[in-house]
Specification:
Length: about 400
Amino acid sequence: MRPLNLYMAGTASWFVNHGIQGVMFAWLVTIVLRESPQMVGIAQMAMLLPALLFMLIGGSLADRFGGRRVAVLAQAFSVVPVLGLLAVLATDQLSFATMIGFAVLMGLAQAFVTPARDGLLNQVAEGRIQHTVVRATMIQFSAMLIAFVIVGQTDRVGPAPVIAVQALVLILGTIAMRRIPVSAPARRPSDNALWRDLSASVATGLVTVMRSAPMRMVAIQNVAIGMFFMGSYIVTIPVAVRDIYGGSAADLAMLNAANAFGLALTSFLLMRVGYIRRPRRALLLAQALGAVALGTAGFGFDFPVFAACIFLWGGCGGVAMSMARTIMQEQAPYDQRGRVMAFFSFSLMGAGPFGALLAGAIAGWWGPGNALIAAMCGMLTVLGTLAVVSRGSAEGVSDLGR
């Protein structure tokens, strides 16, 4: 099997896991345990916090030891907490504390899998970076659609069979990633050299991103996504499903599927269109339209309209995500791809814990509908500032247009 196909298979397995985990975790904490919006925010923060602490380290390890090795080990580790959650459910020991433990371990695995997998993309892309990025994005969210179909059966079959499927998919994906034929890094330092140079290695990736106007813009808008979009997705929307619509696991899965279908659909259309000549302009415009769609969902419409808004939000996200990853992959120096992509993920996931807390607090104070409107306003403010600053500088005039 071609290296690219093995890469896509491993990527698909992780995102099937991610889709099942996202719905199942939110359902268990929000609907089964009936936690408050603030506690839902804390639980989701526990899932995201390891990324803040370890994502950049994961990227450095991928550059030094090879993305395949780090991705395989981290994904194999992720099977452990999934099996642990399965045992908790089988023995009827579910509690908020057990969900926090599960969240921390899965977040830790993601902190290492994500930059390692992204760093591998250039090695299997066969010279077509934007096409491969768009294809990978489409595969990711198509896999999540499959996951949402699986997790949508939870109300009928119970959570244990769904989580068992999650564990199996992770194992199969680990095997696929292990089979990718890539060359090992030229330099393989000793453990002492690794830890002595690690802080300098992380700093190098940060400096590289901050010195590049295109990558710097992506990083700033990523922070805004973590603050306003991610918290809405993992905290506010599940609370809205429970408190406004009286929904079930199937309703939550359907909303996640609507979002993922929008992402996959626009990714497919981008593949048909071909190369986008002005990815930075497309990125900002897509994020602005997505913010409006998300805010519209907060006005208390019937559930089908609410779902349609989430679908449109996902469609805009498909364009934005593809353009953001394309910019980073094309701009990253060859020997710093793991660190640069780690910073890309870090700028997104690192803001996520604060976004989860913010979304939980606003949803608890003002209700989930107003929390979605507030997220729209916050995101549009950041995007407007980026556009004005870019147009106000000699570099930014040409930069925004490309």
